[in-house]
Amino acid sequence: MSLNRLLTASAVVLTILAAAPTSVRAADAWGCSYEKCTAYCTKVGGKHCTSYCDRRLQDKRRDKICK
User: Is 49 part of a structural domain of the chain?
Assistant: First the structure.
């Protein structure tokens, strides 16, 4: 798989998670840990992981999934 396809697939997955209902957001691979989020995002080849994780954690806190 080429790097371009991997990055495209990662972007699609991240977009789906961002638009997913609350129950799906709660079931992601990193829970409420910022460090785990950035590590996972980097592992799947994501770009801008810090801003992505900031937004996702804010969403989870707003939805009362994380404290």
Answer: yes
